[in-house]
Amino acid sequence: VQCCDEVEDAISRSDFPEGFLFGTSTSSYQIEGAPFEDGRGLSNWDVFSHTPGKIKNDENGDIADDHYHRYLEDIELMSSLGVNVYRFSISWTRILPRGIYGDINPNGIMFYNKIIDNLLLRGIEPFVTIHHHDLPQELEERYGGWISLLMQRDFVHFAEICFKSFGDRVKYWTTINEPALVANYAYMKGIYAPGHCSPPFGNCNTGNSDVEPLIVVHNMLLAHAKAVELYRKHFQAKQGGTIGIVAHSVMYEPLRDEECDRQAVNRALAFLIPWVLDPLVFGEYPAEMHSILGSQLPVFSLKEKSLLKGSIDFIGINHYGSLYVKDCSLSACSLEADHPITGFVEVTGIRDGVPIGDQTGFSWFYVVPRGMQKLVDYVKIRYHNIPMYITENGYCSPLKPDETMHDLLQDVKRIDYHKAYLAALLRAIRKGADVRGYMIWSLLDNFEWANGYEIRYGLYHVNRDTHERIPKLSVQWFSSFLNNTIRTN
Ligand code: BG6
């Protein structure tokens, strides 16, 4: 068996290393609802989702899964599944309704205290993302959010409040979710808040997409490093926690069996994963980006480099699927691929009319389990086996027009997806990768950003009128996987 062939191993929880964390993942705006309750302030996503035409069917997160009122029920669901970790994010505007320009909202602190305490009571470790896309609209309006370097100061202020308020009980922190995806979706394509883009990346004329994505990631990385510096100086030793970041991580394969496409794969990866992780491990952007972007790439000062270098205890990996990559540096492809910010590559899910894997309900996610093993190997080698957590992995059910509730709940394909991805992950672990956890996206069907409620990753379906949680077949599978500790080897 060569590397990464998809062998259907029967896997069991006990095949994974002792203490391995298994759980589910969510984020605040996608599930909480209650946008104006108990003093929460207006967020960039409240504004964006209420802008006509931005979200599929003009939906928004005003109610979402009503988790704000049903968090106890959701924690019970997780407890009965048998998970030992839950990844969630803190809504910035519940804690600081006006960002740095106002007071702390004690109700927000109370809400997350209740979540954390109830998780711990049931033996579930809170795995907390400080910032997952939603930020105070006031910061957006005052200076354009992540475009401004003032966001570094404001994020550190927010993070410090989180460490002070919750750090006695939270042992797993990640600072920011997927900086590269925010740059791409929010500042190139304009499909995430605040919706900046310019041609050829989108049809709006706000922002200057040549530089904005680079500046946004630059500010996020420095905000991360400053928050970590503060955590390590004042909290970490006392609280005994660990801190990292979460990287959006697609795996790529060459479209053609040619050297130029293999090089293109390296560039595609560099412009996605090392863009974020190289500075945090080595203190500098990847060479691939330097050689293409030259002076367009923002520069770190010597002091910043030493602050960034080594500023992660672990890497959070969000991984769903793989794509093919075609080189566009030698011959022109599309307008987008001819732009240096893409690294002169074109990505596609199809080769000679054949998709790289089964198609899911999200057009860019194809089911390619071997990608999990390849990705983990790539991260392991490049970053000298820093501990990793799979912070998101999930299957988006294709939407069928005539779908019955029975079809929706019989999510056999989701079960097959997780089994195959877990088997691939296990192969990587057996080859020495230091992976310590796996979290399914998502506990519940939820507000999937630009796609509204139309695409669904949940183990539980949520009735949009009553908000009742209805278990899919995958709940049965996950709980029996989690409760079965018989070794298969
Ligand atoms: C990740 C995000 O990018 O993917 C999640 O961290 C998101 O917040 C998930 O919901 C699924 O992505 P999408 O684009 O299908 O909503």
Automatic annotation (TrEMBL):
InterPro entries: GH, GH_1_N_CS, Glyco_hydro_1. GO terms for biological process: carbohydrate metabolic process. The keyword Chloroplast does not apply. GO terms for molecular function: beta-glucosidase activity. The keyword ATP-binding does not apply. Keywords: Glycosidase, Hydrolase, Signal. Transmembrane segments: none annotated. PANTHER family: BETA-GLUCOSIDASE 18-LIKE ISOFORM X1, GLYCOSYL HYDROLASE. Belongs to the glycosyl hydrolase 1 family. This is Beta-glucosidase 18-like. It comes from Glycine max. The lineage of its organism: Eukaryota, Viridiplantae, Streptophyta, Embryophyta, Tracheophyta.
